[in-house]
Amino acid sequence: MSLTLKLDPDRKVLFVSYGGEFTLAEAKDTFHEILDAIVEHKLKKVLIDGRQIVGDPEPLERFYYGKYVADSVLKTVARSGVEVPRFAYVLEEPVLDPMRFGETVAVNRGMRVKAFDNIRQAEWWLGMSPRE
Fold first, then answer.
1. What is the pLDDT of residues 61-113, one digit of tens each?
2. Is 39 a member of any domain?
3. How many CB atoms within 10 Å of residue 30?
4. Angle of CA points 111, 106, 46, to nearest 5°
């Protein structure tokens, strides 16, 4: 999977673009780059555009990814003292699970996250003003 990070320091937002074939191992590995940027720039919001990700993750992969990212965020927050950021994932089916299983797993473990199929809704949920 390819990953691109873009920072908006004024709004304390990290824009992330993902593309390629979904694999659980790569998704976990690349998530650390996001956490490093959050800590380095003390960011509060992350908008992940994963509409270019292809694949159909199994329910168990969704569970493990949700658990992994939530645990990683909470460990990073405890270690660095940054505020728990809000994460908005923008995905398309079948990567986006209509039942939001991975989201539920992560939220139940203390992560502030929501999955969307519409980038404008994700921006609204993050409290971002519309793009000009």
1. 999 999 999 999 999 999 999 999 999 999 999 999 999 999 999 999 999 99
2. yes
3. 15
4. 50
Prior bond of 98 cis (ω within 30°): no
Query: CATH number of the domain that 30 lies in?
Result: 3.30.750.24
Number of domains composing the chain: 1
59, part of any domain: yes
Give the domain extent around 13.
2-126
| Tokens linked to 53 | 């990700």
Structure tokens at 54: 């292809």
CB atoms within 10 A of CB 59: 11
Please determine, for residue 132, whether its predicted confidence score (pLDDT) is greater than 90.
no
Average pLDDT estimate for 33-58: 96
pLDDT of residue 101: 97
Asked if residue 131 belongs to a domain, the reply is no
Contact between 84 and 122 (Cβ < 8 Å): no
